[in-house]
Amino acid sequence: MKLRRKPKTPAPDPNVLLPPEGVPLHLAVAGMGARFGAQITDILITVIGAAALVILLAVLDLTSPQTLWAISALLFFILRIPYYVLTELAWNGQTIGKRIMKIKVVSRDGLSLSAHALVVRNLMKEAEIFLPGTLLLTLDAASPIGSLIALGWIIGTLAVPLTNKRRQRLGDMIAGTYVIDLPTPILLKDLAQSVPKPVKDKFVFLSHQLDHYGALELQTLEDLLRAQENRPSMQTDTRNKATLDSVIEKIRNKIGYADKVDPMDRVAFLRAFYNAQRAHLEKKQLFGERRQDKFHANQDEKN
Amino acid sequence: MEEPTDLIRSARFRKEREDDWLRLESLATKAETQGLRRMSFGEARDLAALYREATTSLAIAREISLDKGLLLYLEALTARAYLSVYAPQESARGVIARFLRKSGPVAMRKSWFFVLLGFLSMGLGGLAGYLLYFDDPAWFYVLMPGDLAGGRNPDATTGYLRSVIYDDDPSASGLGAFATYLFSHNTRIAIFVFGLGVFLCAPAILLTFYNGLIIGVFVALHVDRGLGWDLFGWLSIHGVTELSAICIACGGGIQLGAAVLFPGQNTRAEALRIAGRDAAKLAIVAALMLVAAALIEGFGRQLIQDRNARLIIGWTIGGLWLMWFVRTGRAQS
Fold first, then answer.
1. Residues B23 and B121 in one domain
2. Residue A284 confidence class, pLDDT cut points 50, 70, 90
3. What total number of domains does chain A contain?
4. Is the ipTM of this complex over 0.95?
5. How would you class A239 by CB atoms within 10 Å of its CB: exposed for 0-12, middle for 13-18, buried for 19 or more?
């Protein structure tokens, strides 16, 4: 008899979604804060909508005031589910609240959201969020058992999203959906594109000098250079100059670059180095050698 | 045209495709703000084509480029385009029509067993309540929540009971509000019963059973006073629809609970997902019936005071529901 459990297969990254095209996309799972904010916004919208209708009914004087109260409770209920389902159907997984918070429902299997999935996740919202919510509002001290049950329920349903990596509610699980942060594409300038010819000739790096660093260092340097570009005022900042100097010193020592770098050419040197390093690493990568970071040499030995 | 040959490979790769990416970005933004429906044919076609191009670009860039800025951009752009290409293609009207014509009744037929269980739990509850009352009328006070009966209890006079059933002026007696209260009570029960099913079957069955008990003692009280048929009429006109809705909601709940309890070959989450396909439809059917019941109740119960008319209307509507469940959406054979 085997007592040991089977070794688990590594869990798939929760932030990766596989569309039908087969190229995995990174879509970050939305945080609980954003979802809570969206929920509050949507509740406010539906309450205001129901209130407007009730006021309309009151003005038109169609029913007696006693029934009006019951009708308003009913209206809020009748408006709510269709509101969520229809907005998410029309705006591809976004209610107004979700649009404001820039989050979105997606289908776990990478296909488009089906009407069924949207209905299910919003029907379950009724049982998960609104029912315990109204229970909480109607609690009284006279029935401690009821209060405890309601409290237990609320804690239970709120805890469910915290127990799984994709932060799925029960409704999300049944519907096979989860909520993501909408990514914003920002196209930055290509650093390797804008190098004037004379600068390129000024700094020449040899092949063995470029063998020290890997992708991590290259991209860190990229961040540093982008920061220089975005804020021109940094050029004159003395602390920034000191940082650049120390970075240049580190690089020069590491790769054995003998020539001193002129203080005026700090950024130009780094850019030239970035260009050369990137070209070198990308060439290596094309031939099947990915260098994660500067420890790549050690890792090769280990493997 | 002079190609800048001194560019490194990944920079050339980017330069060649950049214009397409920017166009895709503007198309995706347009699709998000205006909807695919409003876009021209050419734009929609370009969106799909450029999206596929961008996925290829992303796959290549991951292999050949170390430009973090570019990778992040392509990642986000492809994701945005993916989300607007794979948007739901159905219109709200189409979804509703499909549900009414086909998927709703089909789901009802597929899960007939669970619906039957729902009806059984209420029916048995009713029977138990009825017998208990005749055993000892004091059960009435045990089982009936005070505010639900509207003053109708074993101490009330037969005349009062009759006046509630045949009420000529609902607004004067405040019974209109009571009826609405009863309705929202029943709606809440239906949601409760469905929701509780997920957390295992027992609470849903118990709650339905308890509701059956309430109805049972209530009916017994009236039968005891010789008002059996009159109450039957009063209950029929909306109750056929409304109580069926509760039973159907209970059936949906049991279906979910059964998936959690007996997942079979699947994992529990998977079983829940499969059961959810039909259970959700049962819940919508129940919700539709509840709304219909509200309309009937709002107008019918107090307007129509004749017992036979009440019976006919109530059961005709019940028959129509049954027709919908049984006959609609069958494949032509």
1. no
2. confident
3. 2
4. no
5. exposed
